Amino acid sequence: MTVDTRPGTATVTVTVTVNGRPHTRQVPARTLLVHLIRQELALTGTTVGCDTSSCGACTVLLDGRSAKSCTLLAAQADGAEIGTVEGLADGDRLHPVQESFREHHALQCGFCTPGMVLAAVSLLAEHPGPLTEQEVRRGLTGNLCRCTGYHNIVRAVLAVDAARHAG
Amino acid sequence: MIPAHLRYRRAGDLTEALRLRREHGDLLRPLAGGQSLLPALKLRRDAVDTLLDLGRLTELSYVTAHGDHLAIGALTRYHLLLTDPLVERHAPILAAAAAAVGDPQVRHAGTVGGALAQADPAADLPTALVALAATAVLTSVDGTRLVPVAELAVAPGVTVCRPDELLTEVRVPLPGPRRWSYRTFARPALEWSLVAVAVADGRIALAGMDRTIRRATAVERALAEGAGPVAAAAYADRDCEPADDLRGSADYRRHLSRVLVARALADPVEERR
User: Fold this and answer.
1) In chain B, which stretches have pLDDT less than 70?
2) B115-171 pLDDT, tens per residue?
3) Interface size, chain A vs chain B, as Cβ–Cβ contacts under 8 Å
């Protein structure tokens, strides 16, 4: 019998805290973070659009900052705090960004919406504002909307920014 | 999908990472942010036996001023360069180049060292580092050696980093440039730069114009001999062999290089320090 002296392992034990709840799973090393979230944890609000790091549908918060979960291994997120769209609302109360998307009709088919909302949450958290339209558009360059509903998405994010500065 | 046979090893700190590199060499591929490497693995453009995850090496995330140079840890993420006060003061061209990388999500994960190790001929941050005459620090269990960033890449995806080494730091000479400019032309929706130009005082670096990022030495020489921006920029593509592919023809890249160099030279940022 030959002994495998190669470094590393074909499976990895990953512990992540998702929306405040800790989870531990053993997964194949190649498992992407988005597949851990969708298939192992059954949180299907995070979608996979392009699987090439272009569209941003798979955006989650990794330790508070937006990241593309199709371009991270689940193993890389070991020990991290992850936020998905399922964790934004407080019971029946939508998160202000979600509420603003609803108010401004910032979604059509809805496929890009979870990633778009989380990219906006990250943008607002990183920039104390007030944000210009240009800054919001630049801040959302990592997210594509195939329905091309960008105008209302930008309006929705600007409204959240304006509301927090109005006090 | 990434191939099913992939294996994974996480290094707890730099000492362990260097020991593993010495023991296993090419079996291990260092994984920093993964923003270029993971897409390449999915597309089977790259093949890896075992990924050596460096994500826990937080000791390699820093920007520090040391008299004659600014030291940037290899695992410093792009987004940190956008707001770092030392970068702003000494080398704001690095923030300009980092801002041109991908999108916010990619900048949250991608690292300075990862960009250099990938040796992409169109990468933004390495282009600025070549113009700054920066030096890469390569570390093994035996110690460190210094390699100019301009000599780090030898072909697309290939560097002089040995299988037992890790790229641990980049050093930018101080004082930083008094005049600088960063210009890039990319197609929208996250395409890489077709051509990018970084100017730092008399040094000009070109991305997307050859198999590696390179200095535009003919332009530098013309400027030193007193040529104006437009006349000097006419030499931008001299001795270059740009790719001719679906994203742009070689002629188009040559044209872009002359236009971007002229604009970069005509309208630099002037620092008062």
Assistant:
1) 188-190, 273
2) 999 999 999 999 999 999 999 999 999 999 999 999 999 999 999 999 999 999 999
3) 111
Contact between chains at B28 and A8 (C-beta distance less than 8 A): yes
Report the residue from A67, A71, A76 with minimal CB separation from B39. A71
Q: Given B1, B50, B55, which is nearest A7 (Cβ)?
A: B50
Strand partners, B199: B181, B204
The residue count for chain B: 273
Predicted ipTM of the assembly: 0.96
Candidates B178, B181, B208, B176; CA nearest to B262 is B181
The answer to whether A119 and A140 have CB atoms below 8 angstroms apart is: yes
For the entire predicted model, the pTM comes to: 0.96
* Residue B214 contacts A, CB cutoff 8 Å: no
Q: Hey, what amino acid is at B176?
A: G
Distance CA B100, CA B117 (A): 18
Which stretches does DSSP call E strand in B106-178?
135-140, 143-148, 153-155, 158-159, 166-173
